[in-house]
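pasting for the record
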Amino acid sequence: MTVAVPTSLSDALAAIAQNPAAQIIQGGTDLMVEINFNRRKPTDVIALRRVLELREWSIAKDGSTITIGAGLPYAQMEDDEIARLVPALAQAARTVGSPQIRAAGSIGGNLGTCSPAGDALPVLSALDAIVHLRSSTGARNISVHEFMVGVKRNARAPDEIIVSVTLPIVTGWQGYAKVGVRNAMVISIASCCLAVDRTNSAIRIALGAVGPTIIRCRATEAWLTSQLDLSSVNTVSTNLLKEFGDRVAQEAKPIDDHRSTAVYRRHAVSTLAKRLLTRANTP
């Protein structure tokens, strides 16, 4: 195995331009599992861990958005400023594996693997993130909804590198929750992100691990927005909460696999969504 270890973004882009078939690795928390089990056998690897430009983050001058580098470790999203600005992302980051995994794993890795069970992806979907890609010949910005095209498939071109994502800084409650086969260090068998955007009078709901890619519950979003006054905290009735959970479950597209059943996954996302909505409307 040949491994290139660039120390700048320009060097990384030159390396991938020279060898578009090379396997890109950021933290390796997904890829190394595949390699260790002989499921993947890359012959050429480009390791991005030492590209410090991919670990930067910034807030737009008008304060409306935050841009997070593809290589910024989850451990740096758990607390402080990013957690204040994007609470759901911080909550998702805290659920990722062990401290060692969170010190290496990143949004770029989640997007690159594009597993529907990726913890950051429901948050990116719910907040309508923009994915920024670079190649040696130019740059491209693409909606996260267009970037995720299927099970572990994305729209990245062979000569491109995921460099960052941009998220809106919304006014309103947001949260993330997931269910696994145990209480910690586990891959999601169902996950949910709910974000209330009071400025634009919108509620956004995204589900993970219950479809071939992340599912935005747009029909449920439209229905719930019509039921609630988003300018204030609402009292959510038992009947509304039940219908909300039922509608979310209907939009899920789960399957049976070695980790769970489709029936349980529908029940799980319904329960998670109801819990998040209850928290969102708790004074």
